[in-house]
UniProtKB/TrEMBL annotation:
One of the record's GO cellular component terms: plasma membrane
Cellular location(s): Cell membrane
Keywords: Cell membrane, Membrane, Transmembrane, Transmembrane helix, Transport
Organism listed in the record: Aneurinibacillus soli
Function: Probably a riboflavin-binding protein that interacts with the energy-coupling factor (ECF) ABC-transporter complex.
GO molecular function list: riboflavin transmembrane transporter activity
UniProt similarity note: Belongs to the prokaryotic riboflavin transporter (P-RFT) (TC 2.A.87) family.
Membrane topology: Multi-pass membrane protein
Name the UniProt record assigns to this protein: Riboflavin transporter
UniProt xrefs under PANTHER family: RIBOFLAVIN TRANSPORTER RIBU
Amino acid sequence: MRGKTRRMAVLSLLSAIGFLLMFIEIQLPMFPMFLKLGISEIPALVGATLFGPLAGVIVELIKNILHGILYSQDSMGVGELSNFIAGSTFVVVSVWFMKLMRESKLGYWVGTITGTIVMAAVMGIANYFIFIPAYGVLLNKSVPEIVAWSQLANSSITSLWALILYAVLPFNLIKGVIEAIITYPIYQRLRPIIKTVSQ
């Protein structure tokens, strides 16, 4: 019971940090305005590497619920659902491969790179069929209008498929790689401390 309480406390702290990191976003050149680079998956990845994939999903869920309730009630949860699916996919796939390779240094990089690729593929499909049409409804715009708006950032975006190919896919690849690079030294430094708390 004591170990479970401590683990819940650590996951709550990581969820709070993830929520705060959702407000730190950078606009990248050549990408539409609605794609902003953030690093809020880092606490979930740290939690998942320490306590298992489900812990990372819990962190993702809590941070997005908090963000939806406290910040973006008007978005109908579309942005939060997108962030949750992307983050959970990245975390679960990454950690599954890490565990498969016995949490070695090579396993970390194989895991996070694989997680990044899978996340990009999943979000490409999800944006094509779900999220971009949903954003269109929220913004009272058609999908062609969103494509035209996105073309202002990148002239290669001439269709919805081009938007996925030239924006959504590379954006998620960049995001995953950056978060993996940032997380590695943080995870290595905090792991002994957090593991003692979780026992």
